[in-house]
Structure formats: structure tokens, C-alpha cells
Amino acid sequence: MTTRRVDDVSTTGSRRRSDIEGLRAVAVALVLLYHAHVPGFGGGYVGVDVFFVLSGFLITGLLVSERDATGRISFATFYSRRVRRILPMSTLVVVATLVASYIWIEPLRLRELGSDAIGTATFSSNFLFANRGADYLQSTLPPSPLQHYWSLAVEEQFYVVWPVLVLIACLGARGSVRRRVGMLSAVVSIGSFVACMLMMERAQPWAFFAPHTRAFELALGALCATVPLTRLQRSPVLAPLVSWIGVALIVLSATGFSDATRFPGPWALVPVFGTMLALQGGDTHRLAPNAILRLAPVQWLGSRSYSAYLWHWPVLIIAPAVLGNELSVAQQVVCLLIALGFTELGHVFIERPVHRNHSLQGRRALSLAMATILISGAAGALVRNNPPKFSGGQDAAAPTLESTTTSTTLATATTAGIPTTTVPVVPTLPPYQGPIQAIVDASKNNVLPANLTPSLGDALLDFAKVYQDDCHTSFSSVQQKNCIFGDPNGSLSIGLYGDSHAAQWFPGLEKVVIKRKWKLITYTKRGCPPADIEVWSKVLGRHYTECDAWRENVYKKMVADGVKVVLVAQFDRLLSVDTKIPIWQRDWRIGLQGTIDILKGLGITPILFADTPFPARDVPTCLSASPKNIDVCNPIPSAALRADIAEVREDLSAKNSVPLLRVKDWFCTANICPVVVGNVLVYRDDNHITSAYAKFLGPVLDAALDPVVSWYSK
């Protein structure tokens, strides 16, 4: 059985060191099983919440015990312990992860990874990941091998503030200060929980990663340390019962929650209260959970929980790049075993020797801290500023389009061969005619051009101008900004309506409206489809109610703007509020029909755009890893295009006499959808086309839309 000094595990109340190790083992085991996608542990992420409560309990117990015993709190001693406990292993894993990533993972990810390493060195990585998750342009990027360091950053930020607050709460106190610190813990818990609830409504990633929205978990652990339920702990019946209920709540949340659970928020209280009950129940009774928590394997994992937590995630993230395929559950379990091997080595040779070296106090601890921080930060800066080059060959020629002209067709009626009248025929958008020549040519290329436009490093920022002008409405807003492009005095006004898959067409449409002297008014919003349907927002972590309200306001604005024709586009794979998976065909049919009915009822003719192909993985990242074999990044049409939604659009177009723009031929052959056309990169992420490619398609859009828009705008 592993033993620890009192400066590592508090003996606050009746809680023994071995049982703290047992709870640590439960917490880290849940996280490992969740990250390895082991069936039945879809909510294993709650292990981090258990860690937070335990950390608050242990740290506050140390501070209060020191204040009671000596009448003071030594910041030097406190932070010396933190340095020895946290930084050596943290630095080792960061450097090892950077080296392995530089060798194996996609080169394009190294720039962000270097920034992440600098964030871990400065204990600010949680802010990086919160901003990345809340940014709609970055939210689909592959996870960082250092993303799990966010929880360490939250804890260290708490450790910077909490001892100061405890010291202030203890000023002027005589004797025990537990009541004062308990009141402080209660106030912080309530304030932080309220902040978490409010942030969940605005930006779920910030609620998940921010220190002020997670502090309630650490503060509730502190409350357990300062307000022990002594009478309960003495009861031979209630004490073990409460402990078992606590452990059961932790396990039930880990097995009952999933990625669809709205978290954190009210549901976070289940594992948090479970941990509190496990701490308060005591461990001195025969029927308590300690019979299990003190088993040797559990104690082994608990004593190495910190190291195991650090190692497991980089191994799971880098392993697919090493093997060249997505990992099966069995392979991920093997990865966990490998990570535990690294854990044991790190624990024996780094973690335990440094932690037990109590000569590392004061200035020596400060020197150790500065050295480890500089090593992590310098390694991150080196990787960030020296990414590998990714180019597969020579410059490529820019793609070209065959000249296309269209005009309104006139049908001549005859009687006995003699013309009698001329009747205008309603023009239609082109049917599927086969891929454009540029796509055919691109399907034969397998090498990344040296003059790629935009470059892989700049691809993510190659978005439409409407983003820069705030015309692409934010998640929180329900009002559409007045955004007019093309000829503001043009007699013909058209609208562009939808989510980011409408906004992505803007660069090409702008060329059309400038040429035709039309007025283009944009009505687009992040993650909000024009279909009259409720969606789940991954960024907000809830039902996207702002989308529903925005659509109502947009309809009123279209009427006020005098729009007669509106181009309607949307992402086919938005998530259902009920299932948190892509919305089903039936719901799309009902939602799109509702939109068509509303628009036609307002005297506005909708033109439906088919959705662009969905590569399903970040294209620039994929290309950076295979510059001489870009074919591995090209999706196939059957997977990239939703045939069921295409069928819905065809049916609704025919039923409602609504024009439908079919775009498949602009992106795919029968067998492949090239992600590089000539020297132009088609996608800037895993689903949006680049502005460069949208501009390239401008003449095709013009040829297809001009006769139809002109006709319906009369």
C-alpha cells in the first residue's frame, strides 16, 4: 500500500490517506475509460469533477490545519509543495508529447500545439481551449494532444487565488478558523455555480473551461474539509450508507451521462455531491466502501493518478497518426496500458523522488518552477515557430471555366407552320450535366501544389467578407445587421438566407451582383439553418433558441427590404435538439416546406441551394500530412453528399415550383470530390468551402442564376 506524507494527502476529519487514493483511482479510471470510448462509460468525464472536489478538500484541509497548528499560513511552503507535486511530471509529458507530435501528427496541427504548450507552461491553456471551442471557425478542429491540461490550469488558477482568500478570511481570528473558511467556501460555491448557469446559456465551452465557472466544485470540496459531519461519521449505519450513496452517484453519472448531457451545469452536481458524500461518510466502519478502495490495484492507480492522467491523452491522440488509422476500442485499451507503463516509469523516476525531496523549498522551489516553466514554454515556442514544410510538388496552373452563356428561352407557338405568338418560358436552373472540366482535371492530380491558394496555414481564415463585417450574425444576436452589397441603388434586390453554408457562397455571389448591378442583402447567422426547424448548438451546448427568434425577425426585414428572390442554403448535418445527431430527412422535409410556405406567403421566391459535399475531416490538416498523396483526403460522393436530403429538395422543388440549384457537378465526379482544384484549395476546414473556390465558381453561379433571378424579380 502506497503511503504519503501529510503534505500530500490531508487527514482532515476521519478520512484516511488510503481512501483518498481510492477515490483518486475511481476518478482517473473513469476518465481513462471515457477517453478510450469503452462502452458503458459515456459520462466518464465526470472523473475530472471528482478530482476538483478532492483537490479543494485536500488543499483547504492543509491550509486550515496549518493555520490552526501554527497561527499562520506560509505561502512559501504551500507553493513549494505545489511546484514539487505538479511541475516536473507536467513538463516531462509536455516535452515528450511535443517530440512525438513533431514526428507523427499532421504538420498543420503543430502551430496550435506549440501555442498549447506555451499555455500549459503559463497555466492558461483552459482559456485557449475555451476560445477555440466557442469559435465556430475552430470548433471542428482535431483535439490537441495537450487539451487535457485544461483541468490542471483551472486548479492552478484556483490555487493562486484560494490561499489568499483563506488568509483574508482568517485575519483576526483566534483559535480554529474552520467556520470562517467554511462560510467563504459556501459563498464562493454559490457565486461560481450561478456564474456557471449563466455562462451555459451564452457559451458552453467557456462554462466548461473557465475557472470561475468551475470553482464551485473545488469550493464545495473545501466546504467538506471545513465542515465535517462528525455525528454522521460516528454512526455505524449512516456513515457507510452515505459513503456508498456517494460512490454510487459518481458511478451512475459516469455510466448514465453521455456527450449529449448538458454539462457542466445542474448535472455536474451529481458527481460533485457524490464525492462530497463519499468524503463525509467516513471510512472507519466495516461496511464502508474502503474495503474496495483500499485494494492494492486501486491504491496503485490512485497513487499514480496524476501521472496517469497526464500520459493517457497524448498516447490516445498520437497513436492514430502512428498507426495510420482510427483506433478500435481494443486498440485504445492497449494504448491505456502503454500509458500506464509510462505512468509507472514517470512516477518512480520523476514524480516520487522530486515530491519527497523536501530540500526543494523556498528559492530552490522557485528555481525549479522557473526552470520547468521555461523548458515547456521554450519547447512550445520552438515547435510553433518551426513547423515542417508541406508541399508536394511544383506550382500548378489556376483552374479555368469554359465560357457559359444563358438567356431566357422563348417558345414559339405555331398553327399550320405559321408563327402566331411568342410566349416566354420560365427559365430553370440547370440539371445534373456531369462534372465541370476543372473537377475532372483535378481528379487526376495527386500532388499538393506549391502555389496552393490559400495556403494550408491560411486556409482557416479564408472566409467570406460577411464574417469580417459582422453581417454573419453571432450566436447570441437575434437581429440581422443591415448588410447591402453589390449595387446599393440597384433596382433588383436579392437576398442570401441561411447559415454558414449560405455565407460561404458570398464571395462568388458578390462577383455576380457586381457584374449584374444587383443589390445583394445578406441574412445569415452562425449555425442557424433557414429551414423552420429546431437545432442543437454545440457551441452553446443547448437548444439554439436564438435561431428561432432570428428567423422571425429576418422575415420581417426581408419584406421591409423589398426582396423578391432569396437564395436559401444550409448545412445538411446540423444536430437535432432531441437526438443530438444530424437531423433526419423527415424533419428537414417539414422544416424546408415551412420555410418555402412562409417566403411564398410574403411574396418572395426562394431558390434552394443543394449543400456542398461534406469531407468529414479537416481538409488542410489532412493535406499537410499527405502532400504527395492528396487522394487520401478526397471524399467520395456517396459519403460526402446526403442522398436523402437531396431527394427532399428535389421533391419540394417540384411540388412548390421552386428553383433548385444542384451543385454536385461543381465539386465531384462520379467517384471522387477533389479537395484541390488546379492550385485552389476547395475547403478551409471539414465542411466550408474557401473564399478562393467560391470566387472561382462565380461565373458558373452567374450563368445559372442570372436568367432565373431576373425572371422571378419582375
Explain the layout of strands and helices.
Blueprint (H helix, E strand, L loop, with lengths): L16 H19 L10 H25 L4 H30 L5 H12 L3 H10 L15 H21 L7 H25 L1 H6 L1 H16 L3 H5 L3 H19 L12 H12 L9 H4 L2 H8 L1 H19 L5 H27 L6 H24 L24 E6 L2 E7 L12 H6 L22 H4 L3 E2 L10 E3 L6 E6 L1 H4 L2 H11 L2 E7 L9 E3 L4 E2 L1 H17 L3 E5 L5 E2 L8 H17 L3 E5 L9 H7 L11 H4 L2 H14 L3 E2 L14 E2 L2 E2 L9 H6 L1 H15 L2
Parallel strand pairs: 3-6, 5-6, 5-9, 9-11, 11-12
Antiparallel strand pairs: 1-2, 4-6, 7-8, 7-10, 13-14
Sheet/helix structural class = alpha/beta
| Average pLDDT metric | 89
CA radius of gyration: 30 Å
- Strand proportion, as a percent range, falls in 5-15%
Count every helix, treating DSSP H or I runs of 4 or more residues as helices.
Answer: 28
The global form is elongated
Low-confidence stretches: 1-15, 404-423
First CA to last CA: what distance? 85 Å
Largest sheet: 7 strands, mixed
How much helix is in the residues? 40-55%
Number of extended strands: 14
Q: How many discrete structural domains?
A: 2
Write structural notes for this entry:
The chain is of the alpha/beta class and 714 residues long. The protein has two domains: 17-383, no CATH class; 463-612 and 638-661 and 688-712, 3-Layer(aba) Sandwich (Rossmann fold), CATH 3.40.50. The chain has 28 helices and 14 strands. The strands form four sheets. Strands 3, 4, 5, 6, 9, 11 and 12 form a seven-stranded mixed beta sheet that branches. A three-stranded antiparallel beta sheet has the order 8-7-10, with no helix packed on it. Strands 1-2 form a two-stranded antiparallel sheet. Helix 2 packs across helix 9, helix 5 crosses helix 6 and helix 21 packs across helix 28. The model is unreliable at 1-15 and 404-423 (pLDDT under 50).
